Each structure stands twice: as structure tokens, then as C-alpha cells.
Amino acid sequence: MDSTTLRDRTVLVTGGAGFIGSHLVETLEAHNDVRVLDDFSTGDRTYLPDNVTVIEGDVRDPIALQEAARGVDVIFHQAAVVSVSQSVDEPRRTNRTNLDASLLVLEQARQEDARVVLASSAAIYGHPSELPVPESAATDPTSPYGVQKLALDQYARLYGELYNLPTVALRYFNVYGPRQRGPYSGVISTFLEQARADEPITIEGDGEQTRDFVHVSDVVRANLRAAVTDDVGEAYNIGTGTRTSILELAEFVRDATESTSPIVHREPRSGDIRHSGADVSKAARDLGFEPRVGLESGIASLADGGSLTPVSGTEPADSNTDRGTYS
Ligand code: NAD
Ligand code: UD1
């Protein structure tokens, strides 16, 4: 395909009914023929606009995948079991979804001559050997989830080298935003739910551990850029470059919700990463990626009802229509 523009392409989003996938779908559907393959295990049909083609099926099922991918130009592969702790409990089951199915996606893309943009993860670095962590740093995952994402990331590169398949792996750091919810979702949605219910905010461990929180609208923009870049066969960190401790985060959430919920400490999570923060200079250079939503304004916007409406005085949080990508 002519990779200079995404406009009018037929695209498939696996896991398109999920948190990140549904925001991507919402942005793509204005300019693209969009298909979604999702088994709705954590995704929600109500997140999907009416004019997308929904294939309810399992990404591990080659027949469902073949149907969903027929004739597509780009596959955004988001489907996965996202919870690190679930992968610790069930390494084989999560491997089937997170890795085996990803190989099926790559194989299907070969059949269709389609580009693949894959959701990799900061979890591949384990305890990073340097901070902020560049893509060239050692990879030493501490969970089955991290091992699965590392293999996906490496297969993406290898499919480029061996079969000339255009792939881009995006190593998301801690993504947050509207529609993130559920028992296995991220810490920001958990804290917001606790604060809104006037329940204690539960910090695992001392709360001095840090994360790089990136807003979902920035992650969507990174995906759009990855769909057209000439720099294929590469992996990119997608974060902000700013680290925030879980204690600071709890305070941001309390302030934004005007909550008086106490902060309580629990046992630290076993195998938890102590510090995580992205060096995003490679994504800035090759993809023109620049995060636009600061954490405090992103949380304020969520506390305000969760819409992507810009919070006054900050960068717009709904910078979804990336004109450069669609020109
Ligand atoms: P999510 O759970 O909201 O979305 C995953 C989607 O995949 C859901 O709609 C789910 O129903 C679907 N799905 C799961 N198993 C499936 C299967 N076997 N067949 C078909 N569909 C299936 O999670 P998310 O946070 O939107 O994550 C999207 C991607 O980003 C995942 O690959 C995840 O590993 C990656 N990621 C997320 C984060 C984060 O902070 N949320 C960070 C790094 C990487
Ligand atoms: C998250 C993603 C994972 C992704 C990784 C990349 C989720 C569910 N997981 O993992 O898919 O690959 O980022 O960086 O989005 N915590 C508390 N109290 C709580 C919940 C969490 O203190 O109630 C702490 C945890 O112990 C951890 C931190 O918050 O130290 C972040 O936890 P979590 O949001 O689950 O994300 P990660 O494990 O970093």
C-alpha cells in the first residue's frame, strides 16, 4: 500500500471494543472502513460506533481472523489479556492470547500484504537498567505478560526481516483515560472509583514506586503515525518521559475528586516493577510523536465526567484528528 496516508484505508482493530482499541476505532471511523475483531471478554459493544463492522470472535481462531482481515491495509493489534497478575496466575492461557494469537495476526497480515501495528509494553524491560529507559536498553521481563509482549515485539521485527512485512511495535507505558475500568484495569481507574465511592485509596507497598502515565489520546496519535511511517521494523516507547509516584497519584486523584478518602497501604504486589519511565526521543524523531496531555489535567478531565473535552488552560485532550496522518 502507499503508506503516505491513512485516509480511506480498510483497517482492522483487534481488541477494538477495549479501552485503547475503542478510542482508536472512534478516531479511525471518520476516515476509514473499520473492522473490529473482539470476543468482548473485557471489551464493551456500546463503545463502538454504529458504522464499524463488528466480528464477534476470538483472535486465537484462524477462521475468525481470516474473515476479519480479508482485504485490509492495516491491522492494529490490541487484543490481549492485559493484567500482569492474571498472567502470573495463568501463564499458558495468557500466552495463547498474547503470543500465539499475535503470530496468527502476523501470518494473516502476510496473506493480505497488510501493515501491522502491535501493542507491545513497557513490561518487556522489567526493572529498567536505566531511566528514562531507551528502546535499546536490556529487556528482562518479570512476568509472563512481559515475556509474551517481548516475544511479540521481537516477532514483529523478525517478520519484517524475514518476510518483508511492514510492522511497528509500540511499547506503551501506563495508559489511562475514559473507559478504563474493571477489576484488572489500571491504578488510575481504581483510585478514581475508590475516591468517588468514598472508600479508602489502596496503595500497594510504600507508594514510592513510579510510573509513566500516558493519556489514551496520545496513544491513539502514536498508532496513527505508526500506520504511515517509513520506519518499519522498529519498536517505539510510547509514554511521556515523566515519572509519577503512586503516592503522588493518590493525592492528584483526591484533589481532582475533592475526596476525603483516606490513603491506606497494603502488601506490595509480588514482582512489582519499582520504577518505570520512557525515553520517548526515538518516537519523537521518527514518528513526530509528542505527548500532549499532562497527568494532572488528564485526571481532572476524568474526574470531570471522563469526557475527552479539553480542560481549560491545557493542551486539548481530544487531539484525535491527526491531520498530518490523514492529509
Ligand atoms: P482492554 O482489556 O480494555 O482491551 C483488550 C481488548 O481485547 C478487549 O476488548 C477484549 O475483549 C479483547 N480481547 C481479549 N482477548 C481476546 C481474544 N482472545 N479474542 C478477541 N478479543 C480479545 O485492554 P487495553 O488496556 O485497551 O489494552 C490494549 C492493548 O494495549 C493490549 O495489547 C495491552 O497488552 C496493551 N497495553 C496496555 C497498557 C495499558 O496501560 N492499558 C500498557 C501496555 C500495553
Ligand atoms: C500496566 C498495565 C500493563 C502494561 C504496563 C506497562 C494495566 C492493568 N496493566 O501494568 O498492561 O503492560 O502497565 O507499563 O493497565 N497499585 C496500587 N493500588 C492499586 C492498583 C495498583 O498501589 O489499587 C500500584 C501497583 O502495585 C503498581 C502501580 O500501582 O505499582 C501500577 O499498577 P497497574 O496500574 O496495575 O499497572 P502495571 O502493573 O504497571
Explain the overall architecture.
- This protein is an alpha/beta fold.
- It has a domain at 10-179 and 212-241 and 276-292: NAD(P)-binding Rossmann-like Domain (Rossmann fold), CATH 3.40.50.
- The protein has helices at residues 19-28, 62-69, 84-89, 91-112, 144-163, 187-196, 216-226, 246-257, 281-287, 295-303, 323-326; strands at 10-14, 33-38, 53-56, 74-77, 115-121, 167-172, 174-176, 201-204, 210-211, 213-215, 234-238, 244-245, 263-266.
- The strands form four sheets. Strands 3-2-1-4-5-6-11 form a seven-stranded parallel sheet, with helices on both faces. A two-stranded parallel sheet has the order 7-10.
- Strand 5 (115-121), helix 5 and strand 6 (167-172) form a beta-alpha-beta unit.
- Helix 8 (246-257) crosses helix 10 (295-303).
- The two termini are 16 Å apart.
- Bound molecules: nicotinamide-adenine-dinucleotide (NAD) and uridine-diphosphate-N-acetylglucosamine (UD1).
- Uridine-diphosphate-N-acetylglucosamine is lined by residues 82-84, 121-123, 173-174, 184-187, 190, 202-204, 209, 211, 246, 269, 272, 276.
